[in-house]
Design brief:
Blueprint: E1 6-11, E2 16-21, H1 24-30, H2 33-44, E3 58-62, E4 76-81, E5 88-93, H3 97-103, E6 108-112, E7 119-124, E8 127-132, H4 141-152, E9 158-161, H5 164-168, E10 175-177, E11 181-183, H6 188-194, E12 197-203, H7 214-230, H8 233-241, H9 246-252, H10 274-277, E13 289-293, E14 303-306, E15 325-326, H11 330-336, H12 345-358, H13 362-378, H14 383-386, H15 395-407, H16 412-415, H17 419-425, E16 434-435, E17 438-439, H18 449-457, H19 470-473, H20 489-506, H21 518-528, H22 535-556, H23 567-571, H24 586-597, H25 607-613
Parallel strand pairs: 1-6, 7-12
Antiparallel strand pairs: 1-2, 3-4, 3-6, 4-5, 7-8, 9-10, 9-12, 10-11, 13-14, 14-15, 16-17
């Protein structure tokens, strides 16, 4: 089997670090990573726990294919109860950290309690210990990683950590690894900070050598890599342009949320697109995009490395930002750009680097700034309150707010609470473009009906990665469906949500699903693990994970009323393009979604459904 077979249990209150055997029955039933962590979390954590109390727990979990030769086998998840939403949180990251943990011989690190002082966890194969991190507290992610690698005298050590945002209680703080890969959403870094845990440094030299049938695994992974290489999206689009390839595409179909979803097309989209990143700047003649980059074991390489013009106002007197760094991906470029009406590519990259450096989710940050700019234009917020003039389109305000938010200064403290709390505080809760308190990503639910339903029903709040119906509704993968049609979308959303849960749990990247289906994952799982993972079984496991997460949320106090969208998406028609005049038809889709899920009319899994899924 390709599980390591053990987890590391860390009690920060007691200062203890212990090894315990993996629950193999749970591993077979929930695979690993997202599913396995959800099983431990829902078993060990009270759904009504205060997310920032010592009683909440946080799990860093690999999948059975993490660290193997399967393409994209570098993923891990960070799972906890979210301080941003109060719902179950599971945030996925790539890079190299997850594979390193697996190669050190651990499937999971379970963190509980709270340390009396800042600490970091050091893991070197079987050796694991808590160490003082007082010298790291207050340092950025970049500084923390560099300091630890130097002090440990091993440049191959992999580090995940929080920046000042996680220390200061920004509710959408991220856990960042390998400098610019992140478990970015839902405030997982906030929970880490609340426990006084600054970082986890890992060195693994064991490898992953316990594959059930190595020859069969090598053969099938080679075959599946060929499919990825020959696919137009995973073999050409993503390597060449990264996820930013979507900016102009989504804008043209009339589904690019603009100026806090007031509009659905952005006139400046071309200025912040993948094509713009690959075009020399008129100011210095250099292309912003330096190169692409791959995570561990990845044959797609969608990551971007990017620079900022040294004379740009954001970095003019900040030489530390003149070098190349993690570049813009589509969701970040949208949230920092179109969501605020900003078309200054260098300003977007500056804000993106700040998000990486101090560890915050650029989607929630940018979307919250969009709400702030709308409130400013309404006259609800003033320059005196904000510290700067902040109309839509202000690149200076965007950069200013990035610095203020990560450092917990001035109005940045309000932005750091997320758009739901901020808009409610200033009397306009309807301006929070979120579901369950988590901000929407870069697709307008009016112009793409299925993604609107996916936002409303996502177990972790507004999210595209829990059921990426964009693949079908816009890109025609695996089949083309009409984005403006609501009929059939409940079935589509359920299928995407369940399949994604299985892929997330395997330890592979969801981007493989542009070319693969569960029928491609199944033989890789079969060859690696000592369990019969057919396509049908993986579908059922994905559904089991989804329902288990839903049960946790229901027990935490969420109801049918939380499967909602903002009034703007339901009553204010899209303003331009092919989607003009459309609103999201959630009221027509939700009852059918509950039905196909096997839930009662209030959105609760029925006894029959739970019995069928073994819950």
């Amino acid at each position: 089997m390709s599980w390591a077979g053990k987890i590391l249990r860390v009690n920060l209150t007691a200062g203890t670090v212990k090894s315990e055997p993996l629950n193999s029955n749970w591993a077979r039933a929930y695979i690993g990573s997202r599913g396995l962590a959800a099983k431990y979390l829902t078993t060990e954590v009270n759904p009504k726990v205060d997310p920032l109390s010592p009683d909440n727990k946080i799990y860093f979990t690999t999948g059975p294919l993490t660290g193997t030769m399967a393409s994209t086998g570098g993923r891990y998840t960070v799972s906890t109860k979210s301080p941003l939403t109060g719902a179950i949180a599971c945030s996925n990251s790539g890079g190299y950290w997850g594979a390193e943990l697996k190669m050190a011989g651990w499937d999971m690190v379970a963190i509980e309690g709270k340390s009396a002082k800042p600490v970091y966890l050091y893991i070197n194969d079987d050796v694991a210990e808590l160490r003082d991190a007082s010298h790291l507290w207050g340092k950025s992610v970049f500084e923390t990683e560099g300091t630890l690698k130097k002090s440990l005298q091993d440049p191959l050590t992999r580090v995940c950590s929080i920046g000042k945002a996680g220390e200061n209680g920004v509710l959408f703080a991220a856990v960042v690894n390998d400098l610019h890969r992140a478990a970015g959403r839902s405030g997982v870094g906030t929970v880490m900070g609340s426990k006084n845990l600054k970082a986890i440094a890992v060195r693994g030299t064991k490898g992953v050598g316990n594959i059930r049938d190595p020859k069969a695994f090598m053969k099938v992974t080679f075959e599946k890599k060929k499919i990825l290489a020959e696919n137009a999206v995973t073999g050409q689009g993503l390597p060449t342009y990264g996820t930013q390839v979507l900016m102009n595409v989504i804008n043209e179909v009339g589904a690019l949320p603009t100026r806090n979803h007031k509009n659905n097309q952005f006139e400046g989209a071309k200025d912040i697109s993948a094509e713009a990143m690959a075009t020399p700047r008129p100011t210095d003649g250099k292309k912003p995009l330096v190169t692409n980059q791959a995570c561990f074991g990845c044959t797609i390489a969608c990551g971007r490395i990017q620079t900022i013009d040294k004379d740009h106002f954001t970095v003019q007197n900040k030489p530390q930002y003149w070098g190349a760094s993690g570049g813009l991906e589509y969701e970040a470029a949208w949230a920092l750009g179109a969501a605020n009406g900003v078309n200054d590519l260098d300003a977007l990259q500056y804000a993106n680097v700040i998000c990486n450096e101090e560890g915050i989710d650029p989607i929630s940050f940018g979307a919250t700034v969009g709400a702030v700019m709308e409130l400013y234009e309404m006259g609800v917020l003033t320059k005196e309150q904000l510290g700067i003039e902040a109309p839509f389109g202000s690149a200076r305000a965007l950069a200013f707010f990035a610095d203020e938010t990560v450092n917990g200064r001035g109005f940045g403290k309000e932005i750091g609470q997320g758009s739901k709390r901020l808009t409610a505080k200033f009397g306009h809760p309807e301006l929070s473009m979120s579901s369950k308190g988590q901000e929407f990503p870069a697709y307008d639910g009016r112009g793409i009906q299925g993604i609107g339903l996916a936002y409303a029903t996502s177990n972790r709040g507004g999210c595209h990665l829990r059921g990426y119906t964009i693949a079908s509704e816009v890109l025609g993968i695996p089949v083309k469906t009409d984005p403006l049609e609501h009929e059939g979308k409940p079935e589509l959303v359920k299928a995407f949500q369940d399949a994604t849960a299985a892929f997330d749990s395997s330890g592979l990247c969801v981007f493989t699903t542009f070319a693969w289906g569960l029928a491609d994952l199944a033989p890789q799982m079969q060859a690696a693990c000592d369990a019969e993972y057919t396509t049908e079984e993986l579908e059922k496991i994905g559904e089991r994970i989804w329902n288990m997460e839903r049960e946790f949320n229901n027990a935490a106090g969420f109801t049918k009323a939380d499967d909602s969208l903002p009034k703007r998406l339901l009553t204010e028609p899209a303003t331009s393009g092919p989607t003009k005049g459309k609103v999201n038809e959630l009221a027509k889709m939700l009852p059918k979604y509950y039905e196909v899920r096997g839930w009662d009319p209030e959105g609760r899994p029925t006894a029959k459904t739970k019995e069928r899924l073994g819950l």
